[in-house]
Every structure is written in structure tokens, then in C-alpha cells.
Design a protein that fits this description.
171 residues, alpha+beta, 2 domains, 5-stranded antiparallel sheet, 7 strands, rod-shaped
Length: 171
């Protein structure tokens, strides 16, 4: 009876030994795989050298972050500066007087991003040229506009699209 128990125990120990050998082979394969990846990562560099390389890359990332912040701040400043820059233009050329041809008179609308600005009207006659300026606030004139000034303003508000009038096509 002791022989039977001893045989069973010996069989179980043999099965456990085979299983442990299998687990050992699997672990060895995983360690070998990780070792190959580690060596590829180092690629001839020592661990101390890798630490230096990593710290250098972190420093470069910090420099890039600061540069990005500087560029973003510059873009914000440019956007703020462009707030009042002329962005919308409308031009209408016309004859102010019947006896003077050549469309020498003109109305010019100059507006910023907020549709505020001025309308310039230059009237050319035989005895000289007279220029008038009228203020525009948020797309609306502060004072009355002539027909040509209104056409120039509408053209600027519409982004330079062609408008048709009774007299002529205005571009």
C-alpha cells in the first residue's frame, strides 16, 4: 500500500516537474523577447547615456512648448491689431456732372472687421476736386449718404460683389 501511495506521489511530482519546466521555458522566451526589445531601445547606448538622451528630449519639449506659447501670443496680438485694419472695400466710380465724362468722381467705402470705417467721396469738377468723408459705425452711416456713397457702402458690406444700378453696372 505504501508502494502505491509512493508511486502516485512520484507520478504527481513528475507531472508537476514537467509543468514547471514548461512554465520555465515560457518565462525564458518572454525574458528573451523583452531583452531584445531593451537592446533595440538602447542601440549601443549605455543606461546612463539613455537617461541623458531622455532628459535632453524633455528639455527640447519644454522649449517647443514655450515657442508654441510665444507664437500663439503673437497671433493673438496680430488678430487684435487687425481688428481696426481695413478689411472691406467698396468703390463706385461715376460722373458727378453731365458735362465732365470719364468717371473721374468716386465714392470709396473702407470698413474694418466690425463694419465700421469711412466713406470717401471725391467729386471732380471743372473748377477743382472736393473730397468728403462720412463716418460708418457697424455698417450704418452716421450722416446721410449720396446714392453713390450708399452703393460703395453696400458693395463693401457684401464683400465686393457686383451691384446693378439704373445708370451702370458697378464693380
Amino acid at each position: 500500500m505504501i508502494r502505491i501511495i509512493f508511486g502516485i506521489l512520484l507520478g504527481l511530482l513528475l507531472i508537476a516537474l514537467v509543468y514547471l519546466f514548461y512554465v520555465l521555458q515560457q518565462t525564458k522566451a518572454k525574458v528573451s523577447y523583452l531583452e531584445r526589445r531593451y537592446m533595440k531601445l538602447l542601440q549601443g547606448n549605455s543606461v546612463a547615456n539613455m537617461e541623458t538622451i531622455i532628459l535632453k528630449r524633455f528639455a527640447e519639449i519644454d522649449i517647443l512648448k514655450k515657442s508654441t506659447r510665444t507664437v500663439a501670443d503673437s497671433l493673438d496680438a496680430i488678430g487684435d491689431a487687425c481688428e481696426n485694419a481695413i478689411q472691406k472695400v467698396g468703390l463706385v466710380k461715376y460722373d458727378a456732372f453731365e458735362d465732365i465724362g470719364g468717371n473721374r468722381s468716386f465714392a470709396l467705402a473702407l470698413l474694418n472687421r466690425n463694419y465700421s470705417g469711412v466713406v470717401l467721396n471725391a467729386i471732380h469738377g471743372k473748377d477743382g476736386c472736393y473730397t468728403y468723408v462720412k463716418e460708418i459705425t457697424e455698417g450704418k452711416p452716421v450722416t446721410m449718404l449720396t446714392e453713390e456713397e450708399m452703393l460703395a457702402l453696400e458693395k463693401a458690406l457684401r464683400g465686393g460683389k457686383t451691384l446693378k444700378t439704373d445708370q451702370q453696372e458697378v464693380r
